[in-house]
What we know:
This protein has 158 residues and is of the alpha+beta class. It has 7 helices and 4 strands, in the order ααβααβββααα. It is globular. It has a 4-stranded mixed β-sheet with strand order 1-2-3-4, sandwiched between helices. The chain has helices spanning 5-8, 15-18, 30-37, 45-59, 93-107, 111-133, 140-155; strands at 25-26, 62-65, 71-74, 77-80. The protein starts with a helix and ends with a helix.
Amino acid sequence: MLDADGLNAFATEPEAIARRSSPTIMTPHPGELERLDGKPASADAKERLARARAASARFHAVVCLKGAGTVVASGAKTYVNRTGNPGMATGGSGDVLSGLLGALLVRFDDPFKAAALAVHMHGRAGDLAKKRRGETALIALDLVDHLGDALKAVEAPP
């Protein structure tokens, strides 16, 4: 799994990511992806989807392009997340996502499925935390505190 400084370490030689021998999941925010592919970040949903798909193909990895409507792409498979809120744009939030993703990778053989579920649960925890603390006051620990409830919501029958 590559996030933050792990991604930045490849900025001068991004093609090295594609040469990795093990399955790879990347979780860049738009600025980190821009450093890897040289294309300016965009807030346009269609452009974000296209960029995540292109990065997945180029780097032979599952890509979770973070931000509003986080896009998870792996080859032809894509998932656009609808959970989460701007209060989650705080230091450590990406670390919570990475930890959750690592835990789910142990549970699921499919890295795309693990990534999509991690992104959804991360956003859901953020939404639950927002209800309790408000959007402006969110910190990463609030997300951790709500992961159990987010999992219950995902596992609950309709």
